[in-house]
Each structure stands twice: as C-alpha cells, then as structure tokens.
Design goal:
heterodimer, A: 163 residues, mainly alpha, 2 domains, 0% strand, B: 502 residues
Chain lengths: 163, 502
C-alpha cells in the first residue's frame, strides 16, 4: 500500500515507538471506565486508541516489507537526514528560549533567541545579526503588544512593568 | 432579505472592517507565497491574537488571510517553481515553464483574474446552497454527525497522506488528544494522570501552532540553503482575449473546486489537482502542450482552489464539519468567539453568515487589486532568507500560544507537538488529520454517546439505527465504501468485475 520502496533511516524504530505508545494509550483508555457500559466516558478513547494500535500494526507491516538500507552509512544517514546537527542546535536553542522566558520575560528572551539564531543560521557579521534581531523584535513588539494588545510573558527577574 | 443584504455589505461600508479585510488579503498573499509559511500556520497564530477582538473584526481578517493565502501560493509556484502551498502544485507544473519563457507576468496576471473568478463562483455557491443544506441538516441525528466526523477525518487522511493506515493513525491520534481532560458529560478525568493542569484538556491552539508552525519550521531547516532564482516580469495585466478564451474553462474548474471544497475533509489542494487533471483531459488542442506551460493548465487549478474556499465554508458553517485544515482552524476561532458552527448557526446568527459571505466577496475584490499590483516589491520580500524566517516563526508561535490563556505551560505543549510533528512529517505522516481529530473528537464522542443512549445501550439497536434511517444509511454506505476501497478486497472486487465484463 505504501508507495516507498526503501526505508527511511530510523523509520522502523519510530514506528515501533508509535506501536508502544498506542498500546499504552489503549491501556490508559481502558482504565478510565473499563467495559462497564457502552456509553461510558472511556469507550470513545478506547475506540480511538484501538484504531491507532491497529493502523500502527499495518504501518509496521508495510515498513517491514520495505527494503532496509543495511549499508554501512545507515546510522550516519539518520544523523544527516533526520536529526542533523543544525536541527539539534536549533531545538536546544528553542528549549532554552522557552525555558528562560518565564524568568527573563518575553522581550529579553526573544531578543537573545533571535540574535543567537540569526548568528547561527545566517552566518553574517555580528553587527548585522544584532541589528536584524533588534528590528524584528521591535516589529513583533509593536505589532502584538501595541496593535493586537496581546499580553506578553513578563519575567520574574526584572521588576514588573519594565518589559 | 433586506437584513441579509445589510449584513452582506457591512464590511464594504465600515472603513475599519474594509481596512482589516484589505490587510488580511495582502498579508495572506505574502504568507501563501513565501515558501515555509502556510495559510494554516498563519490562521492558527492569528486566532490567538484576535480572540479578544469583536468577532466581526477577527472574521474579516481571517477571511482575508484565507482568500489571499490560497492565491499567494501560485506566485512562488510560477516564479520559483516552489509551490508556496500544496494547492499550487499543479500551477507550478505549467507556470514555471511559462516564467522560463519570459512570460511570468502574463502567467501571474491570468492566474489572478481566474482565481478571482473561481473565488466568486465559490462564494455564490456558499450563499445559495448553505441555507438549503443548513435546513436539511436540521434533520441530522447524532449518529449522522458521528459519521460525518469520521468521514471528514478519513477523507483528509486518505487523500493527502502516504498510506491509508498513516492517515487513520493521525486522525485517531488527534481524537485521543482531544479526549484529554474532564469528560464533558460526567466530569470524570480522562488521561489526566491525576494532575490538575491536564484536567482542562490540551489546548487545541497549542496543538495547531505546534503541528503547523513549529513542526513546519523544523522541517524547513533542511532546505535552508536552497537559493532563489530570479525572474524578469514585465506585464501583469492579462489580455482580454485570454480572459475571454479561458473564461468557460475557469467556470468549469470552479464548479469542480466548489464541490470538492464542500466535501468534508477535502480542500483546495485536491480541488486544484482534480481540476488540472480534468482540464488536461477535456482540452483537446492547447496552444502549448500540457507540462510545457499551457495556460489551460494554469487557469484550471487556480480557479478551482479559490472556488474551494467558498466551498469549504459550506460544511463548516452548516454542519460544523471543516472542509480542510484551514477551515478546521477557523472553526476553532469561531468556538473561541463563543459561536457554534452547525445547522443552528444560520437560524440563530444569520447576520454572521451573511457577513462572512460579504467579507469573502470583498476579500476577492482586494485580491484582484493586490494581485495585479506590487509585483516588484513582492519578488524582493519572497527572497527573504529562511534563516531569518524560521526563528521569527518560532517567536510568533510562542507568543501566539501564550496569548490564548497566558499560561506558560501551553508553550511547552506547543514545543512537544512541534517535535512530534517533525518526526511524523519526516516519516510520511500528515498532520492535517490530527488537527481535524482534535477539533472533531469531542464532538464525535458526545454524539456517539448520545446515539448509544438513544439506543438504550443496546449494541444491536445501535447498529440497526445506522441502516434503518435514510440519511444515516447513505452516510454509513459512504463510510464503509471509503474503508473498503482502501483494502486489498477492493482491488480484487474490481478485478472480478472486469473479468466478467471483458
């Protein structure tokens, strides 16, 4: 059914994870109300989780049928195509950014994040990245805080009202 | 009637609404055109910013973005051979060869005019058929809504994904996400693991922004270094002869687009491909062969995908079933504004219906204006490097998620969905069905239980009801056919029929 003939790197492991997740979801759904009645709150979640599990088994079957690339570069391909260094660095930066936001506040955290990303992804000069980060932050702040009147996260580090 | 007309013209006369619609359409064109930004992404982020606004203002902006965005994808398809949105894939096949011949301006002008024609056909259909369908839908039972929800999710899953199983998985995952929290009927916790923060459920805006914003931004990281190609554009206003010549083709394609758009679960992407396919079969002697820059192949998909906008609003406003991912997000917006899309919407809030129709028509007029002007600035903005775009998308996603309830926990949900969405996309899953599942899941759950209670908990009677009522029977047959057509049984059946009739 699936059109592809070769397996993407890491695909089998991911599908196995999905099977496990579906099974766990089914078990959790069962523990809501069990089989006590057909209009109980747990019935529909169980149906959804069962659908996930069944379709996952079909996906697993299809994936097992595809040709796995057993070449020596298989592991390297996973890190190149699915989780390249650039993505990992970006994810780390996003993680730190979102983790630091309640502490630093939206304006400082976003400014630092934008600057770090521009510097890392664009690789122009330090000054250009800085100016770009400042302008885009000002634009975002103006548009959302002033025009849309959105409440932006405040930091606990600075006294309230500063940013 | 007079009242309907007054509501229709509301956004045409109010300068503020006029401005919002214009701004929305213009922004939509750019969002749709810039590869890496999608209309769904923009609408889901916009919802979180506009939920405090009066409902008319929010709807005006969102309608503009939708109309502009569906069209915008065609521009990058023509100029860069990168469809800005999936609905412009067919446009790229014919438009890019035209651009290479130096006819980019011609192609853009023609697509603009034909998109507007398509848009108006879709809106006319919305205005004419929605009231009819809505009064018909009042006869719908909870069973029928359950079936409509299932059909909608399955259609999105089967038509857009890599395989049926992956579509079904994505839809069911969405339903499961939608189930988290306190059960609306018995207030029993579902998947809450005893924590208070999960009792309110997983905010669907966080899921939308995560799957459509963050996940998409992460996928775009892979193509950071693809350079843009520059094109020369001279004349944009299309020739009258061309418009006359392709007008009926555009009307025909618009008809296809409206119908496909109106089917729950199918949107502009599929409408455009089907209309392109239809044009390729029905046009006997194109000036230039298809695939090498035939104008027929440009007109059909563009008219169809804009007609699908009006079409997609039909099931959304009359049944509460979204026509595609964008309308799924718009339904979320209506819920946030305290509206209940469904058969009662036209009865209870007819002014909003006519306002939406008038607004879409207005957005189409702005589309014509903006579509034929400002091409030079446009080419500059579209070349904006992704290195700048991706961090900005992430910042906007974070603000958008936070803005809904000012809850920082939602931002972490968004990140989690973004990462999960990245892996799902990488391995050939579609995220559209997930969002449809999240939105439709709770509706399907309560309708299922109402139907089951109606059958007094007797499973035999429950299933008997599906075949003993005419509307339910038709929907059940559609549902079963959809599933059977995806199994090996179907191809065997077809083979058997063919052997009998040589």
């Amino acid at each position: 059914m699936s059109g592809q003939s070769t397996r993407r790197p890491g695909e089998l492991a991911f599908i196995c994870l999905l099977v496990l997740f579906s099974a766990a979801a089914l078990w959790q759904a069962y523990s809501i109300s069990g089989f006590t009645g057909l209009s109980q709150p747990g019935v529909f979640p169980m149906l959804a989780a069962a659908t996930m599990l069944v379709s996952c088994c079909f996906i697993l079957r299809d994936t097992l049928r595809t040709r796995s690339s057993r070449e020596p570069g298989h592991r390297a391909a996973f890190w190149r195509d699915v989780l390249p260094v650039r993505l990992l660095v970006m994810l780390a930066m996003v993680g730190i950014y979102l983790y630091a936001m309640p502490w630093l506040g939206f304006v400082i955290a976003s400014g630092l994040f934008l600057f770090a990303c521009f510097a890392y992804l664009w690789r122009k000069s330090f000054l250009i990245s800085l100016i770009l980060a400042a302008t885009s932050l000002a634009a975002v702040y103006f548009l959302f805080r002033i025009v849309f009147e959105v409440v932006l996260p405040q930091g606990t580090l600075l006294p309230a009202g500063v940013f | 009637m007079l009242e309907a007309f007054a509501n229709f013209g509301l956004s045409w006369l109010d300068p503020w609404l006029l401005m919002l619609t214009a701004a929305g359409t213009l922004a939509g064109i750019y969002v749709g055109a810039i590869p890496g930004l999608s209309v769904t992404m923009a609408t889901s982020i916009l919802i979180s910013f506009t939920f405090k606004w009066p409902v008319n203002d929010a709807l005006a902006l969102i309608a503009g973005v939708f109309v502009g965005g569906v069209y915008g994808g065609s521009r990058t398809a023509i100029l860069l051979n990168i469809p800005g949105a999936p609905s412009a894939i067919a446009t790229a096949i014919e438009g890019y060869p035209m651009a290479k011949r130096g006819e980019a301006g011609d192609a853009i002008g023609l697509t603009t005019v034909m998109s507007v024609v398509g848009g108006f056909v879709g809106i006319a259909a919305l205005a004419m058929f929605a009231p009819v369908i809505s009064s018909f839908a009042l006869m719908f039972n909870s069973r029928d809504y359950l079936l409509l929800g299932l059909i909608g999710i399955l259609l999105v899953g089967t038509l857009s994904g890599e395989s049926f199983a992956k579509g079904a998985f994505a839809g069911a995952l969405g339903v499961l996400i939608g189930m988290v929290g306190l059960d609306p009927m018995t207030a029993e916790g579902r998947f809450t693991f005893g924590t208070i923060s999960l009792m309110g459920g997983i905010p669907y805006v966080a899921a939308m922004i995560g799957f459509f914003g963050v996940a998409e931004a992460l996928v775009q990281l892979q193509t950071l270094d693809v350079p843009a190609i520059k094109q020369r554009i001279d004349r944009v206003i299309p020739r009258i002869a061309d418009i006359k010549r392709y007008f009926w083709l555009a009307i025909r394609a618009s008809g296809i687009g409206t119908i496909i758009g109106a089917l729950p679960g199918t949107g502009g992407d599929i409408a455009a491909l089907l209309a392109y396919d239809d044009a390729r079969r029905s046009v006997k002697d194109p000036e230039v062969p298809f695939g090498e820059g035939a104008k027929e192949g440009l007109v059909a998909p563009e008219a169809a995908n804009n007609a699908a906008v009006g079409g997609a609003f039909i099931p959304m406003l009359t049944l509460g079933i979204p026509g595609d991912a964008v309308t799924a997000v718009i339904i979320g917006a209506l819920f946030i504004h305290g509206l209940k899309p469904g058969p009662l919407m036209l009865v209870e809030t007819p002014h909003l219906f006519w306002f939406t129709v008038g607004n879409l028509a207005l957005a189409n007029i702005f589309l014509l204006i903006f579509g034929l002007t400002g091409i030079r600035i446009f080419t500059k903005i579209v070349e904006c490097p992704k290195a700048i775009l991706i961090p900005l998308i992430i910042v906007l996603s974070a603000v958008g998620t936070y803005a809904i309830e000012n809850n920082p926990v939602h931002i972490y949900w968004m990140l989690l969905f973004g990462v999960v969405g990245y892996f799902l996309k990488t391995y050939g899953f579609q995220v559209g069905p997930i969002i449809l599942g999240v939105i439709l899941g709770p509706m399907m759950d309560s309708n299922y239980r109402r139907a089951m209670i109606g059958a007094r908990g007797d499973i035999g009677e429950f299933f008997w009801n599906f075949v003993s009522h005419p509307i339910s029977l038709i929907l059940s047959i559609c549902f079963v056919l959809m599933i059977v057509s995806q199994t090996p049984l179907w191809s065997r059946l077809l083979k058997a029929v063919r052997i009998k009739r040589p």
